[in-house]
Amino acid sequence: MHITVVGAGVTGLSCALELAEADHDVTVIADHGPGDTVSARAAAIWFPYRVAVADPDLSADHLLERSLARFVGLASTAASAGEDADDISDDLPPVEMRRGLVRERTATPDRSWITPVVNVLGADAVSEVDGGVQATLPMIMTPTYLAWLMDSCRIAGVRFRWRTVESLAALCAGEYGTDSPDAVVVAGGIRGGEVLGGDAEILPVRGQIVVLANGDGDAGTGDDTGPHLTDWLIDDDNPAGETYVLPRVDDIVVGGTAEVGSWDDAPDAETAEVILARAEAAVPELAELPILGHGAGLRPGRSSLRLGLLTDDELPDGTPDIPVIAAYGHGGAGVTLSWGTAERVTELVATLG
């Protein structure tokens, strides 16, 4: 089947690659490339954040497990290259297994995320420690990962068209420089509902981050650029504001904010100072590292994930009789749910015959 995927963020690209590897003819259409999507601003670590799954036909744990298993496999592929690889490149999935701490501050902390981890990695993958739960989870080096994912799509035969889709009917008619598809997958993030003629349940959740350099850790050599950090920290219940510290290879993403309903995607200087102060209070070593930049993005918040084959009543008037699958509303868990979403979309396409 010829499938058109709307959206080139992590969900759209994952769906496109999964469909192409299932022998479908796939075209991705998006208004900009993956480097300009909100996915590129994600830190990112596999961890469910601000997403709800209300559909009785979907299991949140199942989607999470499928994604986790895929990321663990990618990390294993990268690790197996060992010293034969000079650096993370587009040919090597930029995913690593990293140890860190989920800080707990309440009497009944949310530990729902632990079940998928144990199911995939075993009971030894998590342990209670002073102040929370320690775990080893996949860290996805997002900007490089998106480049790797896009290259993987191209190798699999996926085509790309950089156009803004304003009409689903026009897309189905092949008016955006693409052939008329046999099915459409809407994975447009915050614009997913707009492509479908409107979705009152979509609500942006503004996030802001500060990016620091990750040092070389070689103190006393004369070339010291500060400490090299590898362990991550998630502290969503910090009374001063949600706090996370996510070290990647060459940089460290610290955050954050969760401003529901804000459409402001520009970093705010005062907010950045507050974020950095919280992060440095949690990880004092950060004070020794220089700031590389700032970022802000709009997470595609929704009352619940929209993932399924749409009925005629859910489509805009005038839409041709072509199956449309929705795959958006992932909140802050776009990367975390990406492979589970892609596998579910591919399963739905298989039912179309």
Structure, explained:
- The chain has 353 residues and is α/β, with parallel strands linked by helices.
- The termini are close together.
- The chain has eight helices and 15 strands.
- 45% of the residues are buried.
- The model has no long low-confidence stretch (mean pLDDT 91).
- The chain has two domains: 2-97 and 139-201 and 303-350, Rossmann fold (3-Layer(aba) Sandwich), CATH 3.40.50; 203-301, D-Amino Acid Oxidase, Chain A, domain 2 (2-Layer Sandwich), CATH 3.30.9.10.
- Strands 3, 4, 5, 8, 9, 10, 11, 12 and 13 form a nine-stranded mixed beta sheet that branches. A six-stranded mixed beta sheet has the order 6-2-1-7-15-14.
- The chain is globular and about 60 Å long.
